[in-house]
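Bug report (template v2)

What were you trying to do?
Predict the complex of my protein with iron/sulfur cluster.

What happened?
Run completed; filing so the output is reviewed.

Input:
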Amino acid sequence: MEKVTIIIDGREVEGIKDQSVLDVARENGIPIPALCYHPEVSTSGGSCRVCLVEAHQNERMRLVTSCNYPVRAGLEIRTDTDLVRRIRKGVLELLLARVPDSEVIRDMARDYGVGEPRFFKDEGEDNRYKCIACGLCTLVCEEVVGVCAISMLNRSREKAPGTPYHKASNACIGCGACVYVCPTSAISMKDEGDTRTIWGKQFTMIRCSVCGNPYIPDAQVDWIVKTTGKDKAFFEKCPDHR
Ligand code: SF4
Ligand code: FES
């Protein structure tokens, strides 16, 4: 692993060659807003564009998405210039017009001085929808969980994750990883008593033998046991009581 030194907002910081600018910035406590990127997912990032920064190299400046721009020796990054703020504001304005019901987007947009959306605002059902179609949920399902229960369906404004034919998926194990990773809280999951409901499917939750709290779907336990060979007895207790 080759170490390289770059400059971010006037500070010299160290990263690994080809690591993303966003990761290096985060490791050094330099904030850059980001929505569609997750470090555990190799192919995430590049769609929401809120992580745009100025990249200066060889006397040239380009606006790049920091979540998938690789660090190289001699690179200088500026994360908060007038130009970056202006473009980011425009990006947030468009996102807000698309999903005006998303609190996350509304808060980010407010921080950048965006008022009410001046582009498209739908008065129909879509206004309650919060999905920015970043695809992170489907990538986590495929790459991290390894089950491929959901995929991106439809096109343009209708594009959103879903199960095949919008039917309860045999592949889904009810783990909720898609819910936890979604940057805009667009996926609903309900835990009631011993039952979890997600993607139109119900799962029975296993209760911890110590505290009695339901904490993991039995289908998820079966999946882990099958794919890792772990002893099922391990799941009799929740993480707090192991
Ligand atoms: S549900 Fe969330 S994670 Fe999935 S595509 Fe929409 S915004 Fe992205
Ligand atoms: S976080 Fe970089 S484009 Fe979405």
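What did the reviewer find?
Residues 131-137, 161, 182-184, 186-187 surround iron/sulfur cluster (ligand 1) (CB under 6 Å). Confidence is low (pLDDT under 50) at residues 123-127.
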